[in-house]
C-alpha cells in the first residue's frame, strides 16, 4: 500500500527533528556517564515522559490495538499486566537500584557478590531479553515502513536498523532521552486524538462503540475467552510475565540512573505510571474502533499480525494527513524504544562484560566509548537479522515473550540480592542462567515457534506435556529460577556477601551513590 506525499512529509519532518536532537546530543556526549546515563542531569518530569516513551512501544500502539481488533476484550490482559508491574518498580526496585548501582541492574546484583561470574550471567539474561524485545520493535517498524512507502519488508527493516544505529552511535542516552520525550508527547496527543475521532462516530459514548462491535461480531468480543491465551494456565503465565517482567526490563531499569537521586527516580516512576495508564485506556478505544470502522478482515489483510490496526483506523477517521501523522508517531515510538533497548544492551556489553570482567575495572573512558560504539553496531546487525526472521508476528505477543524472559532471568536475582542476606554468588548465577535457558527452551518448544514460525501442525504438539502447549513460559521459568536461587543459597556459604549485606542496606536507606563512584573495592577483590 503506498502513501500520499503529505503522509511521507510528516515522516520526514519527524526524522529531521530527531536527527537535529542527535546532533545536539552528540556534541555533549564525551564520557560513559553521558553516553549511558545522560550525566544524571535529567529532571523527574522529563524522565517520567522518557520512561513512558521507553515503555509505550510498538506493542502498545500497534500490537495491543491489533490484538483488541482481532480478539476483542481478550486483548485487555496485555494492558492490565504491563501496568501492574509499575508499582513493583516504585515500591521495591527503584530505590535500591538508584542508590547502589551505576548503569545496569547487574551493578546491584553483583554489589556484594563476586563480580565476574554474576556480571557474565547477567549479560546472558539481559541480552536475551533485549534481543527478543528488539524483534517486536523491528517487526512492527518494518511493517509500518512497508505500509507507508511500499518498500519490501526486508529493506524496511534494514532502513529502520540503520537509522537507529545513527541515533545511538552518536547521541547516546541524551539523544535517546529527548527522542523518547518528544515521541511520548506525540504518542499521547495522537492516541487521544485518534480515540476522540473514533468516539465522535458513537456520540462520544464508549458503550455505543462496544455495542456496535457486539452487533457486528457477536457478544463474544466483549467477553473474556481463550482467543489470546490457550487456557487458564496460559493466562496466568502471561499475567506473571507481564507484571514481574516489567519490573526487570533492562532498558526501563537503566532510566533510574539518568536522574540525580532516588527521590527523583521515584517521581519519574509516578509520572510514567500515570501517562502509561491513560494511554492504555486510549488503546482499548482504538482497538475496538478499528474493529468496527475498519474491520478485522481489512486489518488482517494489511499483514503484520494485525499491527496496522491503528494506522488504518487513522486513515479511515482522519484521512491521509492524520494517517501520515500516526505513522510518523508510530515510527517515532518504535525508533525511541529500539534506541533505548540498544543502549541497554551496549551498557551490558561495555560496562558489565568489557570494563568489569575483561578489563577488571581498568578500562579508560576513551576505550569504553570505543567498545560501546562497536557493541552498538553489533547489536544493530542482530536486530536487523531477527526482525527479518520473525516477519508477520504480532508485536504485543512477541514483547510478552521478552517480558517472560525478564521475569525469570532478572527479577528473582534482583529481588533476592536486595532482600535476602543468605543470597550467594552460585545462587545468583544459577538463577539467571536457569531462568534464561528454561524460558528460551520452553519458547522454542511452544506453538509460537513450532507452529507459527516452523509451520508444524498444532496437533503435533497438542499431545505433549501440558507445559509445551503454553505460549508464555513464565509460570514455569520464574518459579524454577526462584527455587534454584533459594536452594543454592541454603547449601552454599559466602562470608563476604553476608557481611556486605549491611553495607548495601545502608546505601539503600541513607542515600545515593555518587554517579562517578566505581564499584566497591571490596566487591572487586571478591572477583
From TrEMBL:
Alphabetical UniProt keywords: Cell membrane, Ion transport, Membrane, Sodium, Sodium transport, Symport, Transmembrane, Transmembrane helix, Transport
PROSITE patterns attached to this UniProt entry: NA_SOLUT_SYMP_1 (PS00456), NA_SOLUT_SYMP_3 (PS50283)
One annotated Gene Ontology cellular component of this protein: plasma membrane
Pfam families noted in UniProt: SSF
Primary localization: membrane
Bilayer topology annotation: Multi-pass membrane protein
Transmembrane annotation, as ranges: 6-26, 47-69, 75-94, 120-140, 152-170, 182-202, 235-257, 269-294, 321-350, 371-390, 396-420, 427-445, 465-491
GO BP term, example: plasma membrane acetate transport
GO molecular function: acetate transmembrane transporter activity; symporter activity
Subcellular location: Cell membrane
Entry's family note: Belongs to the sodium:solute symporter (SSF) (TC 2.A.21) family.
Entry protein name: Cation/acetate symporter
UniProt source species: Bradyrhizobium macuxiense
Amino acid at each position: 500500500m503506498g502513501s500520499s506525499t503529505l503522509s511521507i512529509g510528516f515522516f520526514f519532518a519527524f526524522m529531521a527533528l530527531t536527527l537535529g536532537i542527535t546532533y545536539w546530543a552528540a556534541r555533549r556526549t564525551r564520557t560513559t556517564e553521558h553516553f549511558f546515563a545522560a550525566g544524571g542531569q535529567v529532571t523527574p518530569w522529563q524522565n517520567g515522559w522518557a520512561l513512558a516513551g521507553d515503555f509505550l512501544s510498538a506493542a502498545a500502539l500497534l500490537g495491543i490495538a491489533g490484538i483488541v481488533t482481532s480478539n476483542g476484550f481478550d486483548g485487555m490482559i496485555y494492558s492490565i499486566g504491563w501496568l501492574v508491574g509499575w508499582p513493583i518498580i516504585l515500591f521495591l526496585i527503584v530505590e535500591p537500584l538508584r542508590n547502589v548501582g551505576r548503569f545496569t541492574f547487574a551493578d546491584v546484583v553483583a554489589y556484594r557478590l563476586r563480580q565476574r561470574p554474576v556480571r557474565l550471567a547477567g549479560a546472558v539474561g539481559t541480552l536475551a531479553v533485549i534481543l527478543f524485545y528488539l524483534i517486536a520493535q523491528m517487526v512492527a517498524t518494518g511493517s509500518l515502513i512497508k505500509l507507508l512507502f511500499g518498500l519490501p519488508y526486508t529493506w524496511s527493516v534494514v532502513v529502520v536498523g540503520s537509522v537507529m544505529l545513527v541515533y545511538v552511535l552518536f547521541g547516546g542516552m541524551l539523544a535517546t532521552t529527548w527522542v523518547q520525550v518528544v515521541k511520548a508527547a506525540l504518542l499521547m496527543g495522537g492516541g487521544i486524538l485518534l480515540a476522540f475521532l473514533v468516539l465522535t462516530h458513537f456520540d462520544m459514548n464508549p458503550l455505543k462503540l462496544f455495542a456496535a462491535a457486539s452487533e457486528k461480531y457477536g457478544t463474544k468480543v466483549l467477553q473474556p475467552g481463550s482467543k489470546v491465551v490457550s487456557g487458564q494456565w496460559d493466562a496466568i503465565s502471561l499475567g506473571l510475565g507481564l507484571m514481574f517482567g516489567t519490573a526487570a526490563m533492562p532498558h526501563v531499569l537503566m532510566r533510574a540512573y539518568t536522574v540525580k537521586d532516588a527521590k527523583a527516580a521515584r517521581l519519574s516512576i509516578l509520572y510514567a505510571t500515570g501517562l502509561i495508564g491513560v494511554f492504555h485506556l486510549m488503546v482499548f478505544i482504538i482497538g475496538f474502533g478499528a474493529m468496527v470502522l475498519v474491520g478485522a478482515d481489512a486489518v488482517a489483510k494489511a499483514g503484520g499480525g494485525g499491527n496496522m490496526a491503528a494506522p488504518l483506523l487513522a486513515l479511515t477517521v482522519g484521512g491521509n494527513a492524520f494517517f501520515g501523522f500516526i505513522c510518523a508517531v508510530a515510527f517515532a515510538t518504535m525508533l525511541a524504544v529500539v534506541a533505548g533497548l540498544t543502549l541497554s544492551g551496549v551498557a551490558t556489553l561495555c560496562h558489565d562484560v568489557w570494563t568489569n570482567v575483561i578489563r577488571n575495572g581498568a578500562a579508560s573512558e576513551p576505550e569504553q566509548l570505543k567498545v560501546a560504539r562497536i557493541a552498538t553496531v553489533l547489536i544493530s546487525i542482530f536486530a536487523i537479522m531477527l526482525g527479518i526472521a520473525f516477519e508477520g508476528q504480532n508485536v504485543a505477543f512477541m514483547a510478552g515473550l521478552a517480558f517472560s524472559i525478564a521475569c525469570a532471568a532478572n527479577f528473582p536475582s534482583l529481588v533476592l540480592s536486595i532482600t535476602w542476606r543468605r543470597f550467594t554468588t552460585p545462587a545468583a548465577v544459577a538463577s539467571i542462567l536457569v531462568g534464561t535457558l528454561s524460558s528460551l527452551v520452553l519458547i522454542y518448544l511452544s506453538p509460537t515457534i513450532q507452529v507459527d514460525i516452523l509451520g508444524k501442525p498444532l496437533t503435533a504438539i497438542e499431545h505433549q506435556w501440558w507445559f509445551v502447549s503454553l505460549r508464555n513460559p513464565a509460570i514455569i521459568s520464574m518459579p524454577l529460577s526462584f527455587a534454584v536461587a533459594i536452594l543454592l543459597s541454603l547449601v552454599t556459604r559466602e562470608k563476604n556477601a553476608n557481611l556486605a549485606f549491611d553495607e548495601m542496606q545502608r546505601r539503600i536507606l541513607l542515600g545515593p551513590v555518587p554517579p562517578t563512584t566505581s564499584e566497591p573495592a571490596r566487591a572487586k577483590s571478591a572477583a
